[in-house]
Amino acid sequence: MDRNAEIAERRKMIVEGLEISYKKLVEFKRYKNSPLIVGKDQKIIEVPPDEILPTTRYIRKMDSKLKK
Q1: pLDDT digit string, tens, across residues 6-65
Q2: Superkingdom, according to UniProt (predicted)?
Q3: CA distances (Å), 64 to each of 28, 33, 36, 56, in order?
Q4: How far, in Å, CA of 5 to CA of 25, rounded?
Q5: pLDDT for res 47
Q6: Beta strand ranges found along 9-52 (DSSP E)
Q7: What is residue 68's three-state secondary structure?
Q8: What is the DSSP letter of 51?
Q9: E strands, 23-66, where?
Q10: What is the pTM of this model?
Q11: CB 4, CB 64: distance < 8 Å
Q12: Over the range 7-38, which residues count as b (16 or more CB within 10 Å of their CB) and which as e?
């Protein structure tokens, strides 16, 4: 396996792990009925548990660069 393929595979596994972690975080916040605290535009925002998106996709710009 060449270096780029190895990096792409590891990155894919890391991103999948992040997506699973986010899903578990949302489930926990809904279970506890507590807001999700996030930073956006240099402000701290509380997102109510019923407004949190159930899943998220991470930006995969590097995937196209690694395939070259």
Answers
A1: 998 999 999 899 999 999 999 999 999 999 999 989 999 999 999 988 887 776 665 555
A2: Bacteria
A3: 34, 39, 32, 20
A4: 30
A5: 92
A6: 36-40, 43-47
A7: coil
A8: G
A9: 36-40, 43-47
A10: 0.72
A11: no
A12: ebeeeeeebeeeeeebeeebeebeeeeeebee
Decide: helix, strand or coil at residue 37: strand
Q: What ranges do the domains of the chain cover?
A: 3-66
| CA 68/CA 55 separation, integer angstroms | 29
Q: Are 34 and 62 in contact (CB under 8 A)?
A: no
Q: Cα–Cα distance between 5 and 9 in angstroms, integer?
A: 6
Is the pLDDT reported for residue 66 higher than 90? no
Provide the β-strand partners of residue 13: none
Question: Measured between alpha carbons, how far is residue 55 from residues 8, 25, 26, 29, 44 in Å?
Answer: 22, 10, 8, 13, 21
- Lookup result for tokens 């535009």: 41
